[in-house]
Design goal:
Layout (H helix, E strand, L loop, with lengths): L6 H16 L3 H18 L5 H16 L3 H18 L5 H16 L3 H18 L5 H16 L3 H18 L5 H16 L3 H18 L5 H16 L3 H18 L5 H16 L3 H18 L5 H16 L3 H18 L5 H16 L3 H18 L5 H16 L3 H18 L5 H16 L3 H19 L4 H16 L3 H18 L5 H16 L3 H18 L5 H16 L3 H18 L5 H16 L3 H18 L5 H16 L3 H18 L5 H16 L3 H18 L5 H16 L3 H18 L5 H37 L1
């Protein structure tokens, strides 16, 4: 018998603990070593090499048993003993420090692990040298734990430093060197440098193809990573091409049903879709789904995921109804395999609602979300983010279904919960305020929209600061809807202040600054300041011409608004000048028959006439009429209206005959389009008579009024005021045509009817009486002339 304290007994206990650990019982090993440590400290002392070795093994087994924090404590205690016994530069001490760093990381303190390794590195370089394996391993661990701590750029930098050492020490083809290259590429990508990651993987590929061969699993994995990071680097098409080339080799080397082959097919579909070929993505997934169902079965997770992706890309390819149907098929599988309350099942129900809505069934989407909401509240609770998101989506689809008021009600209730659960400054809360404002607008509540934008503006100002673009946008929307709610003057003042800030922050040529300039001009107009609005549009036009060019659609719109505002401000000459400038541009950009060009001709014609240039107005209306006749036909209401204005301005320009001719053309058109009895048709006939008379064609005027009288009596009756007025005009032009006696006879009959219908003292009766007296006098003069002529003839005859 050797006894419990004999060295062999103690060694045996140590070996027993060791093999428990090796057999997978780390906790049992740790317990045995803890008991052994107490005896070793008693028998050999705390500083004996065997005692220190046991401390080391105890710490390691604790860590292996899942107690990483305990392992750190044990290794730190060991370090204290070792530093006292061995000295700070002993290799065992350096190893213990490495273990402390490792188990800190395993305990969840990645930053602490990184710091410990970074402190260890210079000592390793000093004691062991920069090229020692332990030094290089520590550099590897620094990179690893930096990445775990969220410092991807730092991880990439550490692996780049390591790579330089490894290439010098081990050579570029060594497995450790290749592993370091792989880590450089990976962490570049994780640091946001997707293009750099792709480039690094391409460099790694050249080495692996040379060292391992083109068909080695690591080589194929590298090609997969090249495809992935190309896609993440915004080269989705390049990613798809790289993976399609890889697929050929995977099918040859691993077989068509290998998991890596199948995964690559799924990734090809994804990047096809991301490259804009949603239909191609859907086709690829349809083929993949068939094989997955054959290889893995219909209920496998990968099969269900592929079903989900197929449904999504169908929707993105424009087949919203097909997407909804595919998600409904997926739902049946998920409810059976995962259960109705599984998160993936809920996600699918949400997608069904979305694509129903996208397919035009907004009401159906709302119903689906209402049903989903009940289950989410039951399973996840009212305050879960998925529940809150579903309430937001419900509001959206109710509004899209035409029930904006209901959407507003949902969002108002949702906002109370969002502010309570997430806080008033959370992005989702602020988004809900924006949505509430939008749907209040749709519900016709401009004041309510302004109030919601006010809340959004206050929140963004707190969270983002007053000069953030998002804050400025919210401020803009607040001002706009304050104006729409009736406070145009207040909106004008607020837009002026906003404009100054945007010019300072964004610059005068930024699109948001230009939009504010535009709205400032409109708000001035709404406030009744047409001249101020015109001035604002002048400034806007200068800016747009500088930024976008004079023929850009926005510049043309601003010039049109300037012209219209000048006209509204009674600056007809300025309006005409602006319309003339706009006309030249629209003719070049849009062509003579574009609706905007024709509208510009109309504006030019009106403003030219209002500026006093009747001949110019007539010429412009003639051009407008030609365009309208070409595009719409002469019988279109716009063409007839232009013909009416052409006739009017010809007359105003002194071309009475031309006016009469145009009114004759207008009369024929209105008779065809409106019928002979329409008031506008009869009015055109009235103008024919008036302008024939002014052109000196009294007989033609009388003929027109005679025709008009027949129509007036038939349409309005013989005693209508306009019928009586027509009789007066007819009498007048009969007289002017030389038939004074006929005029007198007509006026006598008319006067009797006026007296009977309107009374003897009515202004129209008195006017007819004046006309009768005038034409009786003319008739007497004419009769006297005729009598003198007759007497002269008689005397002459007698004389002979």
């Amino acid at each position: 018998m050797l006894g419990p304290d004999h060295p062999d007994t103690l060694a045996t206990r140590h070996n027993l603990a060791y093999w428990r650990g090796e057999a997978g019982d780390a906790a049992g090993a740790a317990a045995a070593l803890e008991e052994l440590l107490a005896d070793l400290e008693r028998v050999l002392g705390p500083d004996h090499p065997d005692t220190l070795t046991t401390r080391h093994n105890l710490a390691r087994q604790r860590g292996e048993a899942g107690d990483a924090a305990g392992a750190v404590v044990d290794f730190e205690q060991l370090l204290a003993y070792q530093e006292r016994v061995l000295g700070s530069d002993n290799p065992d001490i350096l190893t213990t420090r490495a273990h402390i760093a490792h188990w800190r990381g395993e305990a969840g303190d990645a930053a602490g692990a990184t710091a410990a390794y970074e402190q260890l590195l210079p000592d390793l370089e000093r004691v062991l040298g920069p090229d020692h394996p332990d030094t290089l391993t520590t550099l590897t661990n620094i990179g690893y734990w930096r990445g775990k701590a969220g410092d991807a750029p730092g991880a990439a930098a550490a692996f780049e430093e390591l790579l330089a050492y490894l290439e010098r020490v081990l050579g570029s083809d060594h497995p450790d060197t290749l592993a370091a290259r792989n880590n450089v590429a990976y962490w570049r990508g994780e640091a946001g440098d997707a293009a750099g990651a792709a480039t690094a993987y391409e460099e790694l590929l050249a080495h692996r193809e040379r060292v391992l061969g083109p068909d080695h699993p690591d080589t194929l994995t590298t090609r997969a990573n090249i495809g992935y990071w190309r896609g993440e680097g915004a080269d989705a098409a390049g990613a798809a091409v790289a993976l399609e080339e890889l697929l050929v080799d995977l099918e040859r080397v691993l077989g068509p049903d290998h998991p890596d082959t199948v995964t690559t097919r799924g990734n090809i579909a994804r990047w096809r879709g991301e490259a804009g070929d949603a239909a191609g993505a859907a086709v690829a997934l349809e083929g993949l789904l068939v094989d997955l169902e054959r290889v893995l079965g219909q209920d496998h997770t990968d099969t269900l995921t592929t079903r989900s992706n197929l449904a999504y890309w169908r929707g993105e390819a424009g087949d919203a109804a097909g997407a909804a149907a595919a998600f409904e098929q997926l739902l049946a599988y998920q409810e059976r395999v995962l259960g109705p309350d599984h998160p993936d099942t809920f996600t699918t129900r949400s997608n069904i609602a979305r694509w129903r809505g996208e397919a035009g069934d907004a009401a159906g989407a709302a119903v689906a979300l209402e049903e989903l909401l009940v289950d989410l509240e039951r399973v996840l609770g009212q305050d879960h983010t998925d529940t809150l998101t579903t309430r937001s989506n419900l509001a959206y689809w109710r509004a899209e279904a035409g029930d904006a008021a209901s959407a507003v009600a949902v969002l108002e209730e949702l906002l109370v919960d969002l502010e309570r659960v997430l806080g008033p400054d959370h992005p989702d809360t602020l988004t809900a305020w924006n949505d509430l404002a939008k749907w209040r607008v749709e519900a016709g509540d401009a004041a309510g929209a302004a109030a919601a934008f006010e809340q959004l503006f206050a929140g963004r100002e707190r969270v983002l600061g007053p000069d953030h673009p998002g804050t400025l946008t919210a401020r803009h929307n607040l001002i706009y809807w304050q104006g729409e709610a009736g406070d145009a003057a207040g909106a004008t003042a607020a837009f002026q202040q906003l404009l100054a800030d945007q010019e300072r922050i964004l610059g005068p040529d930024h699109t948001d600054t230009i939009t504010t300039r535009n709205n400032l001009a409109y708000s001035r107009k709404e406030a009744g300041d047409a001249a101020g609005a015109a001035a604002a549009f002048e400034q806007l036009l200068v800016c747009l011409e500088r930024v976008s060019g004079p023929e850009h659609p926005d510049a043309l719109t601003a010039l049109n608004n300037l012209a219209c505002l000048r006209r509204e401000a009674e600056d007809a000459a300025g309006a005409a000048a602006a319309f003339k400038l706009l006309l030249g541009r629209t003719l070049r950009v849009l062509g003579p028959d574009h609706p905007d060009t024709l509208r510009t001709w109309k504006g030019l014609a009106y403003s030219t006439g209002e500026a006093g240039d009747a001949a110019g107005a007539a010429a412009a209306f003639e051009q407008l009429l030609a365009g309208l006749e070409r595009v719409l036909g002469l019988d279109h209401p716009d063409a007839l209206a232009a013909l009416h204005k052409l006739a009017y301005w010809r007359g105003e320009a002194g071309d009475a005959a031309g006016a009469a001719a145009a009114f004759e053309q207008l009369f024929a058109g209105r008779e065809r389009v409106l019928g002979p009895d329409h008031p506008d048709t009869l009015n055109a006939l009235t103008n024919i008579g008036n302008w024939r008379g002014k052109a000196g064609d009294a007989a033609g005027a009388a003929a027109a009024f005679r025709q008009l009288l027949v129509e007036q009596e038939r349409v309005r009756g013989p005693e209508h005021r306009l019928t009586l007025a027509t009789r007066l005009l007819l009498a007048y032009w009969r007289g002017k045509a030389g038939d004074a006696q006929g005029a007198v006879a007509a006026l006598k009959q008319l006067l009797a009817d006026y007296g009977r219908i309107l009374g003897p003292h009515h202004p129209d009766t008195l006017r007819a009486k004046d006309h009768l007296a005038r034409w009786q006098s003319k008739a007497s003069e004419t009769a006297g002339v005729h009598q003198s002529t007759a007497e002269s003839s008689s005397r002459g005859a007698s004389h002979r």
